[in-house]
Amino acid sequence: MSDLLSNLSNTPIAKQLGVPTVPRLRRFEPGQPLLSGPVLVASVGDGRFAKPVSALVEENGQRVVAEAGEEKIDAIVLDLTGASTLADLATAREILTPAMKKVGPSGRVLLLGAEPGEASGAEAAAVAQSLDGLVRSIGKELRFGATANLLIVSAGAAPSAVDSSVRFFLSSRSAYVDGQNVHVSVPVGSMLDPAGMDDPRDPDLPLRGRVAVVTGAARGIGAAIADTLARDGATIVAMDIPAAGEGLAKTANRTGGTALQLDITAADAPQRLLEHLEQRHGGVDLVVHNAGITRDKLLANMTSDRWDSVLAVNLGAQLKINEALLGSTVLRDAGRIVCVSSQSGIAGNRGQTNYAASKAGVIGMVRALAPRFAERGATINAVAPGFIETEMTGHMPIGTREAGRRVNSLKQGGLPVDVAETIGWLGQAESGGVNGQVVRVCGQSMLGA
After folding, report:
1. Which residues form the catalytic set?
2. Which residue did the predictor score with more confidence, 265 or 21?
């Protein structure tokens, strides 16, 4: 669906008409560098990530600077894992204030902080927690498509544990992820795939050799997920209901993968899926629970069939498949489960009590199952999309659609590929330090937490 305001705001006549600017977001294309300009990397206190992050940036061909000068910068990375006093926060302000004025279009601000629960003393815990408010506010102040995010790093995590997250948040893959915090801990299991199937340092094929199942892959966000994972090197098993067979076949053919027609609510669906994966691929590395439906109605008019069908598809099927994966050997070492939740599951939505309940349930499931998957050397995380431009949103009344597009820091709707890029990052073997997390892909929506 074309965004008329976005198209108009980027024309010469826009300023004359007083049209508010909708920034053009830089999105990833194969062969694109991590960043295209200098990166400011600094540390406050005894942070241990500034040097490794500087090395990562330089390995990717970018220049590192220690402070803001006259030139524009593509990113700011500020290591605050050693910050523990209000004086340290004041030092952070001294670094950030001049640098904020130099952040270019689609620039990145990435803060690294300590876990508040691991802090020694009330002041240190307060300083660690303050970074959450700081980064959310920075995200709302940045302009021209720039974003701000926070990595909260456990004390036991080695510098290499944050590599995949640093790459993601500095790159254009995270174009629509803004104002978020992600906890990174000691990686579970093998951080890198023991079979050497993927190479996290390959910027174009970070999922090479991994087998990925995508449910609800016939169209929309599911098809975009399959396309993106295949682009990054994964072998795709595209899955959807038999009625969506034509679209499913197109997705499978386009990605060079295979199609599996299967109703995930069927009683034997988990077993049939596992048998297919074992017989055809010898196992699976990434399972993306994307399939979902809506049956909207005010709760006062909600029928049992509307309620039951949404809960069965959006939550019940995921619970059963995850239990089957935990009880089998089909999920390989460095396995990754990514579940699609929704902003509605965080903020609620009028007329969507069934949908919001199911998507909030996905978040609860992810948090509960994270320790169990960790015991298997695997992770489970969720992405929560906000307003994403799809065929469904294209049919919304114009007022509702425009409100959904504008009530976020980036002043526009996201694209299906934005959800897919986030899933691709969480699906990497190198992302083993991220477990039990919910990452909103919403442009820092003003709705919800």
Report:
1. 355
2. 265
pLDDT confidence tier of residue 446, bands split at 50, 70 and 90: confident
Q: Are residues 180 and 215 in the same domain?
A: no
CA distance linking residue 109 with residue 148, whole number of Å: 4
Answer whether residue 198 is part of any domain: no
Q: Is the dihedral of CA 241, 245, 251, 252 positive or negative?
A: positive
Lowest mean pLDDT among 18-32, 176-190, 297-311, 409-423: 18-32
Residues 222 and 348 in one domain: yes
CA-CA-CA-CA dihedral for 282, 283, 286, 289, to nearest 10: 120
- Count CB neighbours of 34 within 10 A: 22
Instruction: Confirm whether 193 is domain-assigned.
Output: no
Domain shared by 100 and 148, yes or no: yes
In 10 A of CB 6, how many CB atoms? Answer: 18
- Rounded-to-integer distance, Cα 312 and Cα 295, Å: 12
In three-state secondary structure terms, 169 is helix
Could you tell me the CATH number of the domain that includes residue 174? Answer: 3.40.50.720
Spell out where 115-248 has E strands: 147-153, 180-184, 211-215, 235-240
Residue 442 has what pLDDT? 94
Q: What is the extent of the structural domain holding 27?
A: 4-184
Mean pLDDT (the chain) is 91
